[in-house]
Amino acid sequence: MADPAGAVPHTAPADMPLAGTAPADSTPTGTASADMPAADSRGDRPQGPIFLVGCQRSGTTMLRLVLDSHSRVSCGPETRFLTDMRRIVGRDWERLARFGFPREYWLGRIADFFGGIQADYARSRGKTRWADKTPLYALSIDFLAEVFPDAQFVHVIRDGRDVVVSHRKRFGYWSAVKCVVKWPRYIRVARAAGARLPAGRYHELRYEETVTDPEKAMRGLFEFLGEPWEAGVLDYDGKQHDVAGKYTAEADRRRAAAGTDAPIYGSRVGTYRRELDPFLRVLVRVFSGATLRELGYR
């Protein structure tokens, strides 16, 4: 692979924006434009984007709807394609290097493109700050922190045994088998990246605490994000969200099975005790046991 720092014969043309900046006539990445409400007159509130990450089936969708229910925060559908951008400026860098622009230039262009889409989406919904919920980005926090130096990351963590059970129910048995390796990998990579970030940019949220005491957990989350508390975020079912019909149907089915109408409930905590078969228990012990112990799951 070519060295990104050593393959730059020239910089961007004078009429192009500097790396990491937006064109003069566009909305600055991740911020509000002149026709949007002022972000915060105090000037001390975080204004960067929010990335909600975590292994699939850990409660990220529920948290996405909570964030999207806040009057200032927009959290739309999953994107996923930033993983491809990471590969292009990383493993496939040699191709881009032929253009002669430094890696920072491409990171800036990615920020302009992705941040512009998210800012437009937030603006269309009357929001002033955007968030992205893509579980897969748990493996790309380092890259996202480069693209968006002011981003905050929320890592949702759930007992891996319950995650395996949920994978089996949602995606089938083979998915559950693979999950015993995938779950600890997501945890390990995301936590390591979070440890490298400055204070105030990485926050871990336990699924079990969220469904046991939603208000306490969500107050802590919004305090971390620097956003004012709004009790209505807990009643996200009463608000409009861009979600697939299959999610709504699945959520209704799960609530019916749990015997509740509440959007947040804790009946799925510890389901592995009655639903994890002997074979999967062995696999979990071998491949996920160390991570479970590290996180305090017994």
TrEMBL record:
Assigned keywords, A-Z: Transferase
Q: Does the keyword Protein transport apply?
A: no
Q: Name one GO molecular function term.
A: protein-tyrosine sulfotransferase activity
**Which InterPro entries does this chain map to?**
P-loop_NTPase, TPST-like
Top-level taxon of origin: Bacteria
UniProt cross-references to Pfam families, sorted A to Z: Sulfotransfer_3
Question: This chain belongs to which protein, by name?
Answer: Sulfotransferase family protein
